[in-house]
Write a structure and sequence with these properties.
alpha+beta, two-stranded antiparallel ribbon, 8 helices
């Protein structure tokens, strides 16, 4: 009896949480539609407190974009893109927001197959690639059964061929899922949040000025060992040090 009461209590808590979240989401969407963007931003951030959501980050980015805060808009879009890299709306709005930034970084050239490999990985999220692995493995098992138990030689050949292909695809998709999962767990990129940031040659205010960055620019953190300073690298290969308070990790 006590066990049943505990279950009912937990179920009631979950229902109340879902109901409150749905209400807050509706309120945030309503505030956005009515162009009360600051209120929408506050409500969307509140929704993110219990856990991250690509759709909420996307809506948050839209609200920041409407207020002209490109740094926070890009940060929100980047976080949404990490979770749902295959979402066309997120990708489009992220690219649109990037056009509003001051710094136009031209990436270093790389081998075409590396670019192609990265683009393939970003077709789907880690969960979607994981589901593809399960489907391929299931087909592999069916193919094995066909190969071993089919009476017709033609069907055995089909089973063997399909089995080899699905096994290769399962391994490949597993690699893609792992790469996407690592992007979520090991976040080495950040967005410049300061309106103007002077990058230093050393982790000190007395270091030599190297170049200037502006809000919304994406950087890669290459040295994360210091508390107050981070070494960053741009897509074009430039490297330098910035105060940790001037950037926010994606």
């Amino acid at each position: 009896m006590k066990y049943m009461k505990k279950l009912l209590f937990i179920a009631a808590l979950l229902l109340s949480f879902v109901s409150a979240s749905a209400q807050t989401k509706a309120e945030a969407d309503s505030a956005y539609v009515q162009e009360r963007y600051e209120q929408a931003i506050s409500l969307y951030n509140k929704l993110l407190e219990p856990g991250a959501s690509a759709s909420v980050y996307y809506n948050l980015g839209n609200a920041y974009y409407r207020t002209g805060d490109m740094a926070h808009a890009i940060l929100a879009y980047e976080r949404a893109y990490l979770m749902e890299p295959g979402d066309a709306d997120i990708r489009f709005n992220l690219q649109l927001a990037r056009t509003k930034t001051i710094d136009k970084i031209v990436p270093e050239s790389e081998m075409f197959f590396i670019t192609w490999f990265r683009q393939m990985i970003d077709w789907y999220s880690a969960d979607q690639w994981g589901r593809a692995v399960v489907v391929c493995f299931a087909l592999f098992v069916v193919s094995l059964l066909l190969y071993f138990f089919a009476g017709c030689m033609l069907w055995r050949k089909v089973g063997f061929g399909v089995g080899v292909c699905t096994l290769i695809l399962a391994v490949l998709f597993h690699i893609f899922a792992y790469q996407q999962q690592q992007k979520l767990l090991v976040r080495t990129h950040a967005i410049v949040m300061s309106s103007s940031l002077t990058v230093k040659s050393t982790p000190s205010t007395s270091g030599t000025d190297l170049f200037v960055l502006h809000e919304g620019t994406k950087v890669e953190i290459t040295d994360d060992t210091m508390k107050d300073w981070k070494e960053i690298r741009l897509a074009d290969g430039k490297v330098g040090w910035v105060p940790v308070k001037t950037i926010e990790r994606i």
